[in-house]
From TrEMBL:
It holds the Pfam family Mntp. Keywords: Cell membrane, Membrane, Transmembrane, Transmembrane helix. InterPro entries: Mntp/YtaF (IPR003810). It comes from Cerasibacillus terrae. The keyword Membrane applies. This is Manganese efflux pump MntP. The chain crosses the membrane at residues 12-33, 40-65, 71-94, 106-128, 134-155, 162-183. The keyword Nucleotide-binding does not apply.
Length: 185
């Protein structure tokens, strides 16, 4: 009995890690911008929150939605990442006074959604099985928040070495990552 529970939890942690790697990759890029520790904590919490909410919604709707949603959410995630990257990239060339490039307000929600949306179909599949929703949502929150925090801190450290080219680099990486997500689906 305990081996079965351990196997379920191990699989869940592995899935949460795999889904959270998107957030880690994107947070590395965001960390390349000048960003304060308070903002890093907020971004990590928001991405973790959305990694918790989207699978929960997926579990609730799991029995009602077909398997076609998985491909759609992957495409949506890729498009959102690409457009966020394009915005950052072209914003680096703007000559007017720029507002802070850090994710704030609605932009932070969009960012969180774009890296968390791939957890929705996992929630759908869990909704059709007997996995406890509390365990899934807490695991996804902890793992994705931790990976985001680590990525932001690493990116922040690297940013000082890159200087003004960090926005161009971060926008280019996000565009490439978005295209990779789109074309891998």
């Amino acid at each position: 009995m305990s081996q079965h529970i351990f196997g379920e939890v191990g699989t869940l942690i592995f899935l949460a890690f795999a889904v959270g790697l998107d957030a880690f990759s994107v947070s590395l890029v965001i960390g390349l911008q000048k960003i304060r520790l308070k903002r890093i904590a907020i971004i990590s919490g928001m991405i973790g929150f959305q990694h918790m909410v989207l699978p929960a919604i997926g579990m609730i709707l799991g029995q009602f939605i077909s398997s076609q949603v998985g491909a759609f959410t992957t495409l949506l995630s890729g498009l959102l990442l690409f457009f966020i990257g394009a915005h950052i990239f072209f914003g680096a060339f703007a000559t007017e006074q720029k507002h802070s490039p850090h994710p704030y307000g609605f932009g932070l929600w969009i960012l969180g959604f774009s890296v968390s949306v791939d957890s929705f179909p996992i929630g759908l599949s869990f909704g059709m099985s007997n996995i406890q929703s509390f365990l899934v949502t807490i695991t996804f929150f902890i793992v994705s928040s931790s990976l985001t925090l680590i990525g932001l801190l690493i990116g922040r450290r690297i940013q000082g070495m890159l200087g003004t080219y960090s926005e161009i680099l971060s926008g280019s990486i996000l565009c490439a990552f978005g295209l990779a997500v789109i074309f891998s689906s």
